[in-house]
């Protein structure tokens, strides 16, 4: 069973592909479509409250014919066209949920989690809130981490869990190129790293690190620093995390090459069910 996950940074930019960056994004989406994964999880769709437009729906159907599309958007009082997640699935789930985690501020309304239930597992995609410039949202982010972990623990009592997404945290120093100069930057604070460690300790496996215990490889490069991608000065902040009971089913993990396109690269997981 093949899974792919990607922070696309605007689904519409990919569908329209009118700018050079939009064209690169569309090319990557087309490569994913050619791979025909069983599931494609997308974060930061930036769709309006109304969801997919007719053109977007038709374009996704052309790329991924027959896939079911599950969409969650940002709704008031959260900002319009913000965050947003989606799962494309070949197989219909037993159930579909847009859970509210009882998290602070507008986080529950920003379109950050989708849960699909299948016979052997729950599948989630998540877009974890960024702590922001000046760590202005760090305290709230900590509450999100605790509530999301509690939600996962509840699901795990019923069946194993597979979740993926932009988790906005580099767990250890090997997960970013320049740990010393980024200590206490958003995504590499002691709090965020500790919270992710607590999640793993509650019965989960970072699938890529499980297969590659000593390898440095990244899934995100800053767009603000034009030399970041060329110099491979990246971070690994995108993850497939699975219940510990599924670790022996992990066959292959990795990142997909996006060429010169900075920002996030898609990640993949292959499992033997």
What would you note in describing this structure?
Its cofactor is Mg(2+); Mn(2+). Helices cover 26% and strands 24% of the residues. It is an alpha+beta fold. It has one domain (2-271): Deoxyribonuclease I, Chain A, CATH 3.60.10.10. The strands form 3 sheets. Strands 3-4-2-1-14-12 form a 6-stranded mixed beta sheet. Strands 5-6-7-8-11-9 form a 6-stranded mixed beta sheet. It has a two-stranded antiparallel ribbon with strand order 10-13. Strand 7, helix 4 and strand 8 form a beta-alpha-beta unit. The longest helix has 19 residues, at 138-156. The N and C termini lie close together (7 Å).
Judged by helices, strands and strand pairing, the structural class is: alpha+beta
Outline, from the CA principal axes?
A: globular
Quaternary state reads single chain
Spatially, the strands of the biggest sheet line up as 3-4-2-1-14-12
Order of helices and strands: EHHEHEEEEEHEHHEHEEEEE
- In total, how many domains does the architecture comprise? 1
State the fourth-level CATH superfamily. Endonuclease/exonuclease/phosphatase
Query: What percentage of amino acids are in beta strands?
Result: 15-25%
* CATH T-level topology: Deoxyribonuclease I, Chain A
Please work out how many helical segments DSSP would assign. Answer: 7
> Low-confidence parts lasting 5 or more residues at pLDDT below 50?
none
Query: Using DSSP, what is the number of strands?
Result: 14
Chain-averaged pLDDT: 97
Q: Termini, distance in Å?
A: 7 Å
For the biggest sheet, the summary is: 6 strands, mixed
At the first level of CATH, the class is: Alpha Beta
Helix content: 25-40%
Second CATH tier, the architecture:
4-Layer Sandwich
> Gyration radius, to the nearest Å?
17 Å
Protein name: Exodeoxyribonuclease III
Site (Important for catalytic activity): 238
Site (Interaction with DNA substrate): 264
Cofactor: Mg(2+); Mn(2+)
């Amino acid at each position: 069973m093949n899974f792919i996950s990607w922070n696309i940074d605007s689904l519409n930019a990919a569908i329209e592909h009118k700018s050079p960056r939009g064209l690169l994004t569309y090319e990557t989406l087309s490569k994913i479509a050619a791979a025909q994964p069983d599931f494609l999880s997308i974060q930061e769709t930036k769709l309006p409250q109304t969801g997919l437009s007719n053109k977007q729906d038709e374009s996704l159907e052309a790329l991924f014919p027959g896939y079911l599309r599950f969409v969650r958007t940002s709704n008031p009082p959260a900002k319009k066209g913000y965050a947003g997640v989606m799962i494309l699935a070949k197989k219909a789930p037993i159930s579909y949920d847009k859970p509210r985690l009882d998290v602070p501020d507008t986080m529950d309304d920003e379109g950050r989690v989708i849960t699909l239930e299948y016979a052997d597992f729950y599948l989630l995609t998540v877009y974890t809130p960024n702590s922001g410039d000046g760590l202005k949202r760090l305290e709230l982010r900590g509450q999100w981490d605790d509530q999301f972990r509690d939600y996962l623990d509840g699901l795990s009592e019923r069946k194993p869990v597979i979740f993926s997404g932009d988790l906005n945290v580099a767990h250890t120093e090997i997960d970013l190129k320049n740990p010393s100069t980024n200590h206490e930057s958003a995504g590499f604070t002691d709090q965020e790293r500790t919270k992710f460690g607590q999640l793993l300790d509650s019965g989960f496996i970072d699938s890529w690190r499980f297969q590659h215990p000593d390898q440095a490889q990244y899934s995100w490069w800053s767009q603000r620093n034009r030399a970041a991608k060329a110099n491979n000065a990246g971070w690994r902040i995108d993850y497939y995390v699975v219940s510990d009971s599924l670790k022996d089913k992990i066959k292959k993990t990795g990142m997909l090459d996006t060429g010169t396109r900075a920002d996030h690269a898609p990640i993949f997981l292959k499992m033997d069910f």
